[in-house]
Design a protein that fits this description.
six-stranded antiparallel beta barrel, 7 helices, 18 strands, about 35% strand, elongated
Length: about 450
């Protein structure tokens, strides 16, 4: 909502007051100069500098909560531990599979290419499934770590697969030996098995839950989220037939049932599902404000615009903010209109309490300010369609004069063109006069 308010001008500075003998309902004054501020007000919410959500890496139960709810922590601090026999079992099976991967594959000497093609396709499917699983991890830091693990494993496999194809090509051209080709194929198998070990180890390591950033811990709901995607289990379900039994041992849910969802608060013994939110860490070192600005006003808002902030929770306190960004994606306003989010940094005045994230506020965005501008009271302006006009007293009569306006204050407006300094305009009762009417 737009409000042409927060005027920084006094009538004594704006106009040289001069009442005429024009009756009790009509008053004229001389045009003067002053400072006019145009303000847009909008509903807003206090925001934290950043908030990170930590999710369960695997199905299991809460084994320990190391810090109390509401504690202030540093990045890397241990917050909780999850007990997940399924994740531990998948790691043991992955290591067993890697240890048992054969160094040789017994193949006919005639053509080794079909086997390598099969291995490459199986590996491609496995890595694609791994990336898809990693993308489902809600926490950005954990998601990035999981994606990097898949990328590293894929790079190692690519190197060994290239060596295998080179060896196979050498056999086909009469250079090298079948022994070299078989060893290269075995190496590609071992690389894929090791990738599964890396994924399973990352899941087990994540059972020790650490703070992703500095901030305040809030323990959230320990269940109720859809399981899956948190431990790269889709990757291990794509093993080729040559790694006998690995798909069943390492894939999906690891052969066990998913932990039941629960709406209970996070506590020791509470079951958690893979990917379910465990807690949040909120960085309160810097506070911000997010305002919903109507589409009719948002084009006036730009980075650097200053604003006053009024908090429902702290009546009377005067906070300030500065615009840092204006979203280009619209949102549906509460009244059904279109609004855009405007993000601001918040300054807390000395002696005032620091607000909490989520508190309601109203911001007054000072979108335009005209210093030393030619200006008239807002009541002097009459609008006829899209044209603004004032009534000027000249030669003993009121003359209608079209004007162009600039900044629109609550009590006064800037006149860009159409008036001169010192001219007398009707500032009260403009709706009672007409063009050419006698001023006597």
């Amino acid at each position: 909502m737009k409000r042409a308010g927060a005027l920084v001008v006094s009538a004594g500075v704006l106009l040289a007051g001069c009442s005429g003998d024009d009756g009790p309902d009509v008053r004229v004054e001389e045009v003067g100069r002053g400072t006019v501020s145009e303000v847009v007000d909008a509903p807003a919410t206090i925001t934290a500098r950043s908030t990170s959500t930590v999710t369960a890496p695997a199905d299991g139960t809460v084994a320990a909560l190391v810090v109390p709810d509401g504690a202030t922590v540093r990045a890397g601090d241990v917050l909780a531990r999850i007990d997940s026999p399924a994740a531990q079992e998948r790691l043991a099976q992955a290591r067993s599979t890697a240890a048992g991967a054969t160094a040789r594959v017994q193949l006919p000497q005639a053509d080794l290419s079909p086997l390598q093609d099969s291995l490459d396709q199986a590996a491609a499917d496995a890595f694609a499934a791994g990336r898809a699983a990693a993308q489902q991890v809600p926490d950005p830091a954990a998601r990035a770590q999981a994606l990097q693990a898949v990328a590293d494993a894929e790079a190692r496999y690519a190197a060994t697969a290239a060596a295998a194809r080179s060896a196979v090509a050498s056999v086909g051209s009469g250079v090298g030996s079948v022994e070299d080709a078989l060893n290269a194929v075995g190496s590609s198998q071992r690389a894929q098995a090791q990738a599964l070990v890396t994924a399973a180890e990352a899941t087990v390591d994540a059972l020790t839950v650490r703070a992703p950033q500095d901030g305040v811990v809030t323990y959230g709901d320990g269940g109720g989220a859809e399981a899956g995607g948190g431990d790269l289990s889709a990757l291990v379900g794509q093993l080729p037939p040559e790694l006998a039994g690995a798909a069943e041992a390492l894939g999906g849910g690891g052969g066990g049932a998913a932990a039941p969802a629960t709406s209970a608060p996070l506590a020791v013994g509470v079951p958690v599902a893979s990917g379910a939110p465990l807690l949040t860490v909120t960085d309160l070192s810097g506070l911000g404000v997010t305002a919903e600005v109507d589409e009719t006003d948002v084009l006036l808002v730009r980075p650097g615009v200053q604003a006053g902030v009024e908090l429902d929770a702290v009546p009377g306190a005067e906070y300030t903010a500065a615009v840092t960004a204006v979203d280009v994606t619209p949102t549906a306003g509460a009244g059904g209109g279109v609004t855009y989010r405007v993000r601001m940094s918040l300054a807390v005045p000395v002696g005032a309490p620091a607000p909490l994230p989520g508190m309601s506020a109203v911001v007054d965005l000072r979108v335009r300010e005209a210093v030393g501008a030619l200006s008239v009271p807002s009541a002097a302006v009459v609008r006829d369609g899209a044209q603004d006009a004032v009534f000027v007293e000249e030669d003993g009569a009121y003359r209608r004069r079209e004007v162009e306006l600039g900044a629109l204050g609550e009590d006064a407006v800037e006149v860009v063109s159409g008036l001169r300094l010192g001219e007398r305009v009707v500032v009260s009762g403009a709706d009672q006069v007409s063009d050419g009417q006698s001023a006597s």
